[in-house]
Every structure is written in structure tokens, then in C-alpha cells.
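User: C-alpha cells for this one?
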Amino acid sequence: MRKSQAKKLPLAPDARFNDKQVTRFINNIMWQGKKSTSINTFYNAIDKVSKMTSDNGYEIWRKALQNVTPAVEVKSRRIGGATFQIPTEVRADRKISLSMKWLIRYSRERNGKTMADKLANEIVAASKGEGAAFKKKEDTHRMAEANKAFSHFKI
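Assistant:
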């Protein structure tokens, strides 16, 4: 086991919104170290969200993240030869991480010409409580509810 936990490096807030969560989201979008490309993708997506909804794109993005954030998840635990799915609360840091990864993953799987288009469509759908990322959260909650009987097997 590790002697001490790895230190979290502090993130610099982004240039436009002065928000550390935006920087974290941009870092999750990034592929092959191309940060400027992911920055452009994110800001273009936010601008497209603003045009689509005629509302503040940044606020809609925050609402979408909040709608996709899970409260519980299931973890596998092997007990006496059987594997049980045990529902557990999600840590605050992991909640944010999961919601960002789900939004990005399901926007990549969407149909659209550019990543900015796909991301904008997924953000709008998630803010309305629709879309694949929101469905993933609902499925996770449903799975935890179905396995509530095993919650006494603490991890």
C-alpha cells in the first residue's frame, strides 16, 4: 500500500470564466496533449449553446454538469464466492469527475460535424434532463436502488 496519498496539483482558472472547473473540463476533453484545441472546442461549444438556447452558455453548462452528477454508484465486492454489487455514496471529487467524463464521452459518441457541435448538443440535452449522459446517471441510480439489499456489506 502507498505510504502517502499523491498531492493534488492546483489548477489555474480559465481565461474567460475564471473558473477552475472549466479548466478541469478542458483537461478532460484534451487528447494527445493538444490543450489549445480542447480550449477552442470548449469555448466554441459554449458559444453554440448560447446561440441555441438564447441564454448564458456557461450557466447552462453548469446546470448540465449538475444534472449529470451521480449521488450513488455500485461497486463490486466478492463475498464467499459470490460477487455483489454494493451501492456506495460517491465522493465529492469523484462526482465532478464522473459527470465531466460522462458528458465528454457521450458527446463524442453523438452525431455531428465537429466536436464543438456534439458537445453543445449534449450540454443542451443534459441541461434539460435528456441525453445519454443523463441516462447514464439515471441507470447508475437505478442499479444502486436495485441492489440496496446488499448495502450492509460495507466496502
